[in-house]
């Protein structure tokens, strides 16, 4: 129970590195009004746990197996009364930052300064206020000014959510048959999506798809 008598914020923490989870948990459990109630080692497990535990807040890493943090954030956003979402990442990357906002995240926190920023970000999220690290604020302003000057809208994502799922699984080394089984779709559908990915991204083969997936943070090198 926190000092004001309210129940602590119930937090789901998802990161595929146990050591990172332990360190983040130490930061959060040191606060009387915050409590980690569940831990996940990948994005799919995070979505499953969220359905059962119904946390108030989910803290998600970006680069995780099965589902990335951004993919998990989109899934959590579809849940009735889903949790507020923070992205905790090593990537100081404008593309990930904007994708996180589009996925419904309330904040974007860098792991390198988690000991300084994470607790504040949790409190901001629970007040329905955005939390952005200083570099992200600059990115937002710069992007807005550039779009205003050029008369452009925010660019659409190059690939669909389903194509992103398949890209990740291809890059992780799964066969078309395995991907079809995991996603409950036919092998022919998998092959069609993979062909679309190659065409959209201007790539030639699985190796180039894998390099692209690493570059955009779907898998770790």
Automatic annotation (TrEMBL):
Q: Which InterPro entries match?
A: CheY-like_superfamily, NreC/VraR/RcsB-like_REC, Sig_transdc_resp-reg_C-effctor, Sig_transdc_resp-reg_receiver, Tscrpt_reg_LuxR_C, WalR-like
The segment(s) forming the HTH luxR-type domain are 152-217
* Record keywords: DNA-binding, Phosphoprotein, Transcription, Transcription regulation
Q: Which SUPFAM superfamilies match?
A: C-terminal effector domain of the bipartite response regulators (SSF46894), CheY-like (SSF52172)
**Organism's domain of life?**
Bacteria
GO molecular function terms here? DNA binding
Q: Which residues carry this modification: 4-aspartylphosphate?
A: 61
Domain Response regulatory as annotated: residue spans: 10-126
A biological process (GO) of this protein is:
phosphorelay signal transduction system
Please verify whether the record's keywords include ATP-binding: no
Record-linked Pfam families: GerE (PF00196), Response_reg (PF00072)
Q: What is this protein called?
A: DNA-binding response regulator
According to its UniProt entry, this protein's organism is: Streptomyces solincola
